[in-house]
Design a protein that fits this description.
Elements (H helix, E strand, L loop, with lengths): L1 H24 L2 H19 L1
């Protein structure tokens, strides 16, 4: 249970970092793609 929580936290941190980097680069289209497809897939795999 604790391990799962830690993993979730790590994943969230990674997502935030990636989003920040994308925002800095101003690649909004890629950001949207990443949000809709990869994020959902990762959440589904985690759950």
């Amino acid at each position: 249970m604790v391990m799962m929580m830690m993993m979730m936290m790590m994943m969230m941190m990674m997502m935030m970092m990636m989003m920040m980097m994308m925002m800095m680069k101003k690649e909004e289209k890629e950001l949207q793609k990443f949000n809709h497809k990869d994020l959902i897939q990762i959440v589904m795999t985690l759950n």
